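Action item from last week, closing it out:
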Amino acid sequence: MIKSFFIVKKKPSLTQDEFLRYWKEEHGPLAAKLIPGLRKYVQCHPVKAAGLEFKIDGIGEIWWDNFDSLQNYFTWRQSEEAKMLIEDEKRFIDMSETVRFFAEEHVIVNH
């Protein structure tokens, strides 16, 4: 199993609530519909609690069956079909602050 992690920050013009609503209700379904080979897609939204502040606005996680599926995603990302999703990301994510990480999962505990 291969996982992609995307650490995202919102555009400064958006409130936290606007950003999270758009990401979950608009962008999430679009990504699920357009990204080929997607096994699982999760959005991690920050917990609102007194005293908690974060330097990021969320983490996206995408699961891939194998390295070939991930490679196909990279190829797709350069295609005409991906432009709609990429343009949508630019609407609400500060792309200059996005950090991407790709990893092979090794489960240590799974209760």
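Closing note: Strands lie at 2-8, 40-44, 58-64, 99-104.
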